[in-house]
């Protein structure tokens, strides 16, 4: 990505000029310097910390000798090894739900109608609140004496309060509350990118609403679903505040982010914490790779959209 | 679900069909009877309501007034998927994730046609538009003209009682447009498809259609065969659309039966009246560039005969299109195969039968450009 220090003026016949033409042919010219701030930013805030963490994770400690000591320790300890499963158990169902539940909403809202802005705002507000506030709200709402349980007991659906906090369901619901708007916004942009005349064409060819959705919209939406799932999954997999506040952080909701946190700030074992963070990243990459592999089997390309 | 069998009708009747969007009337009182096998073109500038009319026919837009009848069956309340009409969209609307073959088969699959029959009819339709070699490709891999043919194959494979085409050629380049025009006409003749075709191109409409419907601001201006519209436009707007490039504001000075004498800024013209005109009425005199003749010495003409200065000569192969500045400052466009040169003077004439007078309803606003050239003419005369 070297933009090169090129002479200000060059006659096409001299060798330097010819070289510059060849570079320009491959898309290398002075405008590439505009990338510099972004490159500095990425290196300083992403590449360097990542490499630092990676090297830290290979640093041996007293109880974890050898380069892969921290990794071996993680997989040998069932309490820690289990965090992968406990986190996946939360993140995958929540992400699936968020992605799939967004589809009917986005499909219904793809056109223009009065009040669209109000509905979108309502669906998106939870994003702006942040996870801690959401978790606190849910704690009050879902708790034993919360509104939900009081209401359910009032209408005699249940006689004892449902246990929805300090367990799996509390964290799960908080992941949905914070993850759904995100997934919805993404899916909405994908559905609006599909040329509406495709469905009208299908309808003149005899396809019912359901057939149009299944045969036209859904296949064109599939790549968008895969991307949305990947992004929403990464967010859900790093669940931390809501697991701490709404779950049982030392037991069933001992998620991988908590494991890394307690190693770093309870035991001050930075190299073990780094190794856990690396494992966390690796699991995320594996899931995304699987989703993208599935995605590759779908049609990827233009969806009509504007001016196609 | 089942689609109504694509049985043929003997006539399709639009009864005072209208569509409003809030206060705005996109289409008003369109009454038209389409006979089986007929090719109808809806012609007009953008915003004239022609696409609205087509969408109403297809069922993609509900009517706000009137009704549509397929023989004795009322169809304007049916959903588009129940009408069984074929439609070709302006942007083709091919399904981008399906191969050409799948695109063409889609409608048949929706109709639960047996697979063997689907295969046969799809192959037939693809052969009809000469896309055998492209059948397995995705639409994105095809050129504009090929996509256009897929869209047509997709519509005709259903053997629909009516095919609707919404400016299907407007996205193609000029050469391809001519080729496709011929193909569409040939398909229509071969399959005897009843067709409603929307276009803003008068040449396209004239060459394809059995009958034309000229629309302006949602209102029908004239319905007739190409010949009728071409030789007898009902008003100045239709005339403008039919290629009457010379439309000049004038005053009626005398009426003699079907003929009127009009004063076009000082030039006396005898024209055929297309509407009832009285002495003193404002009128628009129209004459086609082809009907303006270059007059040799000693020629007489019953319409008009006037000398002017040749300003612009456009070479067009067999003919030249020339703009002649008249002594009154107005300019006249004519098409001739004579060898004319800019800057020389020429006498031009037209017959009364080819010079038409319309009521001045302000639908055509051509401001005569009395610019530098008019002064040049004046200077040349003095």
Q: State mean pLDDT of chain A (0 to 100 scale).
A: 88
Structural category of chain A is mainly alpha
Strand order of the largest sheet of chain B: 6-7-8-3-9-10
Which structural class do the helices and strands of chain B define?
alpha+beta
- By oligomeric state, this entry counts as heterodimer
Please tell me about this protein's structure:
The complex is a heterodimer of chains A (308) and B (382). Chain A has 308 residues and is an all-alpha fold. The longest helix of chain A has 31 residues. Chain B is an alpha+beta fold and 382 residues long. In chain B, β11 and β12 form a beta hairpin. Chain B is elongated and about 75 Å long. Chain B starts with 10 loop residues before the first strand and ends with a helix. At the A-B interface, α9 and α10 of A face α2 and α3 of B.
List the helices and strands and how they pair.
The complex is a heterodimer of chains A (308) and B (382).
Chain A: H1 15-25, H2 36-57, H3 69-76, H4 78-108, H5 116-129, H6 131-142, H7 147-154, H8 168-192, H9 196-204, H10 209-237, H11 241-246, H12 256-265, H13 270-295
Helix pairs in contact in A: 2-13, 4-8, 4-10, 5-8, 6-8, 8-10, 9-10, 10-13, 12-13
Chain B: E1 11-21, E2 24-35, E3 39-43, H1 50-58, E4 65-70, E5 73-74, H2 80-83, E6 86-88, H3 100-110, H4 115-128, H5 144-156, E7 163-166, H6 174-191, E8 195-199, H7 202-208, E9 211-216, E10 219-224, H8 226-231, H9 236-241, E11 246-256, E12 259-264, E13 267-273, E14 282-287, E15 293-295, E16 304-316, E17 319-325, E18 331-336, E19 345-350, E20 356-359, H10 372-381
Parallel strand pairs in B: 3-8, 3-9, 6-7, 7-8, 13-20
Antiparallel strand pairs in B: 1-2, 1-4, 4-5, 9-10, 11-12, 11-14, 12-13, 14-20, 15-19, 16-17, 16-19, 17-18
């Amino acid at each position: 990505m070297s933009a090169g220090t090129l002479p200000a003026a060059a006659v096409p016949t001299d060798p330097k000029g010819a070289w510059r033409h060849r570079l320009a042919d491959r898309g290398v010219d002075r405008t590439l310097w505009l990338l510099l701030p972004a490159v500095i930013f990425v290196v300083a805030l992403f590449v360097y910390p990542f490499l630092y963490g990676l090297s830290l994770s290979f640093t041996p400690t007293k109880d974890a000798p050898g380069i892969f000591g921290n990794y071996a320790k993680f997989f040998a300890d069932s309490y820690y090894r289990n965090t992968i499963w406990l986190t996946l158990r939360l993140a995958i169902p929540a992400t699936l739900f968020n992605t799939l539940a967004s589809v009917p909403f986005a499909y219904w809202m793809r056109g223009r109608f009065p009040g669209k802005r109000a509905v979108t705002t309502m669906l998106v507000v939870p994003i702006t609140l942040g996870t801690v506030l959401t978790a606190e709200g849910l704690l009050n709402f879902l708790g034993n004496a919360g509104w939900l349980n009081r209401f359910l007991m009032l209408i005699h659906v249940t006689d004892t309060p449902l246990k929805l906090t300090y367990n799996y369901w509390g964290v799960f619901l908080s992941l949905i509350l914070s993850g759904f708007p995100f997934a919805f916004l993404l899916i909405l942009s994908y559905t609006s990118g599909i040329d509406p005349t495709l469905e009208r064409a299908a309808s003149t060819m005899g396809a019912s609403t359901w057939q149009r959705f299944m045969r036209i919209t859904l296949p064109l939406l599939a790549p968008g679903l895969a991307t949305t799932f990947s992004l929403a999954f990464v967010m859900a997999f790093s669940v931390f505040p809501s697991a701490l506040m709404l779950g049982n952080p030392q037991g069933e909701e001992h998620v991988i982010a908590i494991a890394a946190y307690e190693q770093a700030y309870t035991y001050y074992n930075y190299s073990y914490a780094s190794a856990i963070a690396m494992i966390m990243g690796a699991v995320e990459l594996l899931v995304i790779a699987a989703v993208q592999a599935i995605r590759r089997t779908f049609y990827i390309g233009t969806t009509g959209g504007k001016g196609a | 679900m089942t689609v109504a069998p694509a049985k043929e009708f003997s006539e399709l009747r639009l009864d005072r069909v209208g569509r409003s969007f809030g206060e705005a009337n996109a289409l008003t009182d369109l009454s038209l009877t389409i006979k089986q096998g007929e090719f109808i073109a809806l012609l007009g500038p953008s915003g004239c309501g022609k696409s609205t009319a087509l969408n109403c026919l297809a069922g993609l837009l509900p009517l706000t007034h009137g009704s549509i009848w397929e023989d004795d069956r009322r169809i304007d309340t049916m959903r588009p998927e129940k009408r069984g009409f074929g439609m070709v969209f302006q942007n083709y609307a091919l399904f981008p994730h399906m191969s050409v073959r799948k695109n063409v088969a889609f409608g048949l699959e929706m109709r639960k046609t047996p697979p063997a029959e689907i295969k046969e009819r799809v192959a037939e339709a693809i052969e009809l538009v000469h896309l055998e070699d492209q059948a397995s490709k995705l639409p994105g891999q095809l050129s504009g003209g090929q996509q256009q043919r897929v869209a047509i194959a997709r519509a005709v494979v259903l053997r629909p009682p009516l095919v609707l085409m919404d400016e299907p050629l407007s996205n193609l380049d000029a050469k391809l447009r001519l080729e496709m025009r011929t193909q569409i006409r040939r398909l229509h003749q071969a399959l005897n498809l009843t067709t409603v075709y929307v276009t803003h191109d008068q040449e396209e409409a004239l060459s394809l259609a059995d009958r034309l419907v000229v629309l302006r601001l949602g209102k029908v201006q004239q319905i007739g065969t190409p010949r009728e519209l071409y030789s007898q436009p009902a008003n100045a707007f239709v005339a403008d659309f039919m290629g009457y490039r010379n439309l000049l504001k004038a005053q009626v000075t005398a009426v003699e039966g079907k003929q009127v004498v009009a004063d076009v800024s000082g030039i006396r013209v005898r024209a055929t009246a297309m509407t009832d005109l009285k002495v003193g009425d404002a009128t628009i005199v129209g004459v086609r560039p082809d009907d303006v003749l270059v007059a040799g010495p000693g020629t007489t003409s019953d319409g008009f005969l006037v000398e002017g200065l040749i300003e612009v000569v456009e070479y067009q192969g067999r003919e030249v299109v020339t703009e002649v500045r008249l002594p009154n400052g107005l300019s006249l466009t004519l098409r001739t195969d004579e060898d004319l040169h800019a800057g020389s003077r020429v006498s031009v004439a037209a017959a009364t039968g080819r010079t038409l007078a319309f009521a001045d309803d302000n639908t055509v606003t051509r401001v005569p450009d009395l610019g530098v050239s008019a002064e040049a003419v004046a200077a040349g005369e003095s």
